[in-house]
Design a protein that fits this description.
It is a multi-pass membrane protein. It is found in: Cell membrane. Keywords: Membrane, Transmembrane, Transmembrane helix, Transport. The protein is built from 20 helices and no strands. The protein is mainly alpha-helical and about 475 residues long. It has two domains: about 400 residues, MFS general substrate transporter like domains (Growth Hormone, Chain: A), CATH 1.20.1250; about 55 residues. Helix 4 runs parallel beside helix 7 and helix 10 runs antiparallel to helix 11. The chain is globular and about 65 Å long.
């Protein structure tokens, strides 16, 4: 029952990331706004989730993960209901900000699994939850068209609102109280600084294309993000009760995993964002298929299916060959899918095959990255470490979307449609990103399966090995 609640919670949050993407033009017309303003329906959710994900995770580590899970689900439910009822763009944007509170469900889910599950089931459970988070981004694009055609876009919010409300009630009664908590007070200043630099950075990345990358606003936000980030690190290092332990973030097992997450988020979200545009391009352009919203979403369906199936099997892969090896293999598989998209995209079946392959690669990567993070930190830091990993993936996605947009639109026809070469160059770039992710994954410290399972439950049989996260395992034991 606990796992069912966690799965529904994470799936709902993930779906809300992408459900509205294909129908922004319809929302724009219905709410009587302009194209620049309607993009805030996406931007507001991204910014809010990026701020709340690590903060909710950290508070959960301190006061109880089950309590904060209910709070996150209530935020998703209330935000969804307000969005469903919105008749103007203002309330819609406010609703999306409230929904962002739900970003905390991912780190909370990982923490609850670590606290409550038998040790042999933890890698598989974490893998499935991580896969659901990735699958949701693709499934949202697939479901949006049929839901809007059968009902209307308001049901893109009514359905998640009802589901998350039920999940919140179930979480209150079903999910056990956290047995592991972090002592100490919650630091306010680090939370404010973290929120400030994330907002500045993601606002610049998300609005750079419309404002202009060399505009004063974008450059000012980037400078502010750098200054605030430096101030945040300095405050965290001097704090007696830091929001995010900088020592933890510098551990080899943590920073390497986070860097892989950044690169994979960069490539995956960029491909999800531009494949529908590619397929919807009229055939008169010399490429594309003139697909409808529903048809373009269905082309992404194979990746969602294979991603979820691989997530179910990830625990077995982790036990057989270890998470580091799985991440390397997954990155190379995903790179091959982007190469197919770059050089073989004249037929629909080629896109179906490429997406199915990408789902296999990304499913392997995300499932194992989450396991590595959960295994790499003490139990009381699971929530905040998982939250930052998810946040870094989101930042990677924002950067990837911005860079992909610049490459795709570098050369356009007189009617404004991008030329085929733009997409080809963009997918080549994403291929390179996955290859670099594989190279970075080689730097992740290698540990035995037995050591991972021991530390996932915090009760090692060989305490002399030390924490996996320390990255200090030497000699033959490091193998």
């Amino acid at each position: 029952m606990t796992f069912a609640v966690l799965a529904v919670s994470v799936a709902s949050f993930a779906l809300l990331q992408s459900l509205v993407t294909p129908v922004l033009s319809e929302i724009q017309v219905d709410l009587n706004t302009d194209q620049t303003t309607v993009t805030w329906v996406l931007t507001a959710y991204l910014l809010s989730a990026s701020v709340f994900t690590p903060i909710i995770g950290r508070i959960g580590d301190k006061v109880g993960k089950e309590k904060l899970l209910v709070v996150a689900l209530v935020g998703l439910a209330i935000g969804s209901i307000i969005a469903a009822l919105a008749t103007s763009i203002g309330p819609m944007i406010v609703a999306r900000i409230i929904q962002g509170v739900g970003g905390g469900v991912l780190p909370l889910a990982f923490g609850i699994i670590r606290d409550e599950f038998p040790e042999k089931k933890i890698p598989g459970a974490v893998g499935i939850i991580a896969s659901l988070a990735a699958v949701g981004a693709g499934v949202g694009l697939v479901l949006a068209g049929p839901i809007v055609e059968a009902l209307n876009y308001h049901w893109l919010f009514w359905i998640p609102g009802i589901v998350t409300a039920v999940a919140a009630v179930a979480a209150f009664f079903v999910v056990p109280a956290s047995p592991v908590r972090t002592p100490g007070k919650i630091s306010v200043l680090p939370a404010v600084l973290l929120s400030a630099w994330l907002v500045c950075l993601l606002l610049a990345l998300s609005q750079g294309r419309s404002w202009g990358w060399t505009s004063g606003r974008v450059l000012g936000l980037i400078v502010a993000a750098v200054v605030l980030a430096v101030a945040w690190v300095m405050v965290e290092e001097r704090s007696e009760s830091p929001l995010i332990d900088m020592t933890m973030m510098r551990l080899p097992a943590v920073w390497t995993t986070n860097l892989v997450a950044l690169l994979v988020g960069f490539a995956m979200y960029a491909s999800f964002g531009f494949l529908p545009q590619f397929t919807q391009t009229p055939t008169e352009a010399g490429y594309g298929f003139g697909a409808s919203i529903t048809e373009s979403g269905l082309i992404l369906l194979p990746s969602s299916v294979t991603m979820f199936v691989v997530g179910l099997l990830s625990g077995t892969f982790v036990r057989l060959i270890g998470p580091k090896t799985v991440v390397v293999i997954g990155s190379l598989i995903a790179a091959s899918s982007m190469a197919i998209l770059a050089f073989a995209h004249d037929e629909k079946w080629e896109l179906y095959v490429a997406n199915a392959i990408m789902g296999v690669g990304v499913g392997l990567i995300f499932a194992c990255l989450s396991n590595l993070i959960v295994a790499a930190v003490p139990p009381e830091q699971t929530g905040v470490a998982s939250g930052m990993n998810a946040n870094i993936r989101t930042i990677g996605g924002s950067v990837g979307a911005a860079v992909m947009a610049s490459i795709v639109t570098a050369s356009v026809f007189p009617n404004g449609l991008p030329k085929e070469s733009g997409y080809t160059n963009g997918f080549i770039m994403l291929t390179i990103a996955f290859v670099v992710a594989a190279l970075v994954a080689l730097l992740i410290p290698r540990v035995k399966r037995e050591v991972i399972e021991e530390h996932l439950v915090g009760e090692p049989e060989h305490p002399e090995l030390g924490m996996v996260a320390a990255g200090t395992l030497v000699g033959d034991k490091s193998e």
